[in-house]
Amino acid sequence: MARVSVEIKDHIAYVTLTRGDKMNGVDQDMGEALIAAAHGLQDNESLRAVVLSGEGRAFCAGLDVASFGKLAGGNAEDIVMPRTYGNANMYQELVLAWRRLPVPVIAALHGVAYGAGFQLCSAADIRIAHPETKLSIMEMKWGLVPDMGGMALWPAYLRSDVIRQLSYTAEQVDAQQGLVWGLVTELSDTPLERATELAEVIASKSPSAIRAAKRLIEVAENGADEDTVLLAESREQTDLIGKPHQMEVIMANMQKRAPNFG
Questions:
Q1: CB 17, CB 31: distance < 8 Å
Q2: Residue 250 has pLDDT above 80, yes or no
Q3: Segment 85-104 mean pLDDT
Q4: Closest CA to 114 of 234, 47, 25
């Protein structure tokens, strides 16, 4: 059965986890569907933003329990260690593929975002959560460590002590505490509506400037030295100034109208 749906409307991709009867637990099929969905959007030049959400009672309750049995019963070396997607295995790719998208990804969270679900939403640029959402780095509950790309993502926006506390304890925190700690960006009683609203705002901006901004932020976040960051700023700006999208923004501002990027 389908695990993920993708609908593109007005340059925004609405990606929905569709295993609501299982709280969108990630099994093999969903993992493959998430990778396929992200890869399918990667080279879409008309895309300007992505909204990632889950149907039913939760965003994602984590790795499907049956998958733990497969891991425990199989050869862990053969399951986890192969680098099947560049520097990542399948479990890491189903998360990191969303961070590699060239446009902003906004995750709309409700219910729970546990384990694999929390790592998945960590790949988003922005996380909008219902105030009652529960969040957890859940792996320690099962005697495991988070290994789906979270450790490559969290240091860019979470304090080390927060990562350590949540990794060591597997405790569940509500979205209010998550906001304080930086796990979520914003609270909303209607997170999908708010995520859509933000995506529409982003989609109304210069597409080339938005993509440039995401590239530039990635350079800055990934520990580049000052010389590299400053050069990247100048390079991205040079490639924008006087180009069609920027000229359309200027004309739209002067004419007091919304820009039209085609």
A1: no
A2: yes
A3: 97
A4: 25
Which amino acid is it at 51?
V
For residues 80 and 238, what is the distance between their CA atoms, to the nearest angstrom?
43
- The per-residue pLDDT for 68 is 64
Pairing of β 126-129 and β 105-109: parallel
In terms of CATH architecture, what is 206-255? Answer: Orthogonal Bundle (1.10)
Q: Which CATH class is domain 4-202?
A: alpha beta
Sign of CA dihedral 239, 245, 246, 247: positive
Q: How far is CA 174 from the centre of its chain?
A: 19
Residue ranges of domains in the chain? 4-202, 206-255
Helices (H), 142-256: 150-153, 160-169, 175-181, 191-203, 207-221, 226-238, 244-255
Q: Which amino acid is at 23?
A: M
Mapping DSSP to helix (H, G, I), strand (E, B) and coil, where does residue 250 land? helix
How much is the pTM?
Answer: 0.95
Closest by CA to 80, choosing from 89, 67, 72, 69, is 89
Q: Cβ-count burial of 56 within 10 angstroms (0-12 exposed, 13-18 middle, 19+ buried)? A: middle
Collect contacts of 150-155 with beta carbons under 8 A, ≥24 apart: 150/95, 150/118, 150/119, 150/122, 152/92, 152/96, 153/95, 153/96, 153/99, 153/119, 153/122, 153/123, 154/122
* Token pair 């002067």 in the structure block, residue: 254
Rounded alpha-carbon distances, angstroms, from residue 116 to 79, 102, 133, 222: 16, 22, 15, 23
* Those residues with Cβ within 8 angstroms of residue 125's Cβ, 6 or more apart along the chain or in another chain: 104, 105, 106, 214
